[in-house]
Amino acid sequence: MKQSMYLILSVCFLGVFSACGGGTEIAQVGQRAPEFDLMALDGTEFSSSSLEGQPVILNFWATWCQPCLKEIPEFKEFASESNIKLIGIALDKDGARSVKPFVEKHQMNYPILLGTEELFQQFNGFGIPHTVILDSDYKVAKVYRGTITKDDLESDLATVAGNM
């Protein structure tokens, strides 16, 4: 009886995790990042193809995420002082309805896109905040799981720029 129970649990476990992959490529350091098209807060469509040729920072976040809220001042300062493109990808389920007033209230001075769970998973995300640095070849150079600082970004970007 125990062996049958373990077999059933093992099959269920494997089934769940093989379904998670779904044949979708997942971003890994050193590999080309997934391409995407997302809606910006102003209603325009944004394509990742416009990012190639420059280092880029993608920050996956949500309005209800307290650690994400702590990063916003760091990102605002970084965006105002750096020529490196920083893009916020909001993962709120109700989209612009909650994101737009939040962005205005916090005076976020960098582009915000309305993301999807599928895209987040393609970037190997499982918790937010989740930040990805892409090099000028659109390859994943660094992944942060959790909060980061402006100093973290500047340090790693110096390394990324030095490798170009």
Average pLDDT, to the nearest integer?
83
Please give the oligomerization state of what you see.
Answer: single chain
N-to-C order of helices and strands: HEEEHEHEHEEH
The whole-angstrom Rg is: 18 Å
- Please state the second-level CATH architecture: 3-Layer(aba) Sandwich
CATH superfamily: Glutaredoxin
Count every helix, treating DSSP H or I runs of 4 or more residues as helices. 5
Task: Label the structural class.
Answer: alpha/beta
CATH topology: Glutaredoxin
- Structural domains: how many: 1
Largest sheet: 7 strands, mixed
**End-to-end span in angstroms?**
60 Å
Q: Give the strand line-up of the largest sheet.
A: 2-1-5-4-3-6-7
Envelope shape: globular
Q: What is the CATH top level name?
A: Alpha Beta
Helix content: 25-40%
Structural features, described:
The chain has 164 residues and is α/β, with parallel strands linked by helices. The protein has one domain (26-162): Glutaredoxin. The chain has helices at 2-21, 66-81, 96-105, 117-122, 150-162; strands at residues 37-40, 45-47, 56-61, 85-90, 112-114, 130-134, 140-145. The protein has a 7-stranded mixed beta sheet, covered by helices on one side. Helix 3 links the parallel strand 4 (85-90) and strand 5 (112-114). The protein is globular. The model is unreliable at 1-25 (pLDDT under 50).
Task: Lay out the secondary structure.
Layout lengths: L1 H20 L15 E4 L4 E3 L8 E6 L4 H16 L3 E6 L5 H10 L6 E3 L2 H6 L7 E5 L5 E6 L4 H13 L2
